[in-house]
Amino acid sequence: MITFEQAYNLVMQNTFSLKHERVELTAATGRILAEDIYSDMDMPPFNKSAMDGYACHKEDLKDELEVIETIPAGKEPQKIINKGQCAKIMTGAMVPDGADCVIMVEYIQIIAKNKIRFSGQSTNINICFKGEDVKTGDLLINKGTLLKPAHIAIMASAGITAPLVSKQPGIGIISTGNELVEPFQTPSPWQIRNSNAYQLAAQVGTAGAVSKYYGIASDDENDTYNIIIKALNENDMVLLTGGVSMGDYDYVPAALKRAGIEIIFNSIAVQPGKPTMFGKKDKKFIFGLPGNPVSSFIQFEMFVKPLIYKMMAHEYSPVTVALPLEDDYRRNNATRKALLPVIITDKGTVAPVQYHGSAHIHAYIKADGIIYIPIGLFEIKKGELVNVRQI
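RESULT FIELD:
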């Protein structure tokens, strides 16, 4: 049995990057950028009015001004602003030559046809100057970035219509055990519905990968071996749930050995999730996750998700916040690192979710995050700061 930190390092050290592909800009959200994006123009590309008003020379504000043209957005100014002149201008329109400020329309007094006077005491410039946001050649987005809607807007502004992104890993999912039936089936008194596979498929999707479900492998070594081989041949990674312990009917270890999988570790000093296995064959990875839903959920978040992102050349960094504990926390056994589900209260404190062990997945519906309780620590006092890893 190895520590959580040792297991995490082993997973990250054994990764490799996938190839790249170009996708339509509208399909790029959630993908990992595989190229740096540079600006091909200044932004704004011209001196732009920040509001509706009148473009003029600031030194002329004390005088009456003649309105010589109206400039809507998307139209090039036709005249130069000379002394005593101005142009009515709309938000986003190009500021004409000769003007160095835009007077807000709220501070204008119309005194005659095409004649106005500034009625305020002072004014801001109210101009967005050419290149003040971005200059031609500026780096806009680094490769390795997880693309979000704001990144899509930036790429569109730079004329990028088909960004280069990392290919999405294919993740095969296998459940094991004669005690399982599919959700559409009615279980016998000794059976349960398979929730792990569907939970993992959802988690795979949120991590930007593509899942393929291979069904339930029965408690038979040949059946387990055949389904593992098929999944390995068709995917970059395989996730198994259940059958990784040392029970009489846990055939996964034997099937993995037969399939030529190099087992890197098969037990971690964490709670829940001790019987977690990680192995590889050539450039294929395989995780054996515990059969209990909470354990498999947590171990995916801790190990599988960072590896998926690493394969796409993205450094996954979960959001973590330090918050005070709502009440005293105590545990009887501190030989393993505890991964404890918590909620963030309305008071800004953290309270452990009440759950009945690693099979109680319903408790995670309410969980906002996970806190780590180190090996050897039995107690955390009320009010002590704990780091909450949000999920």
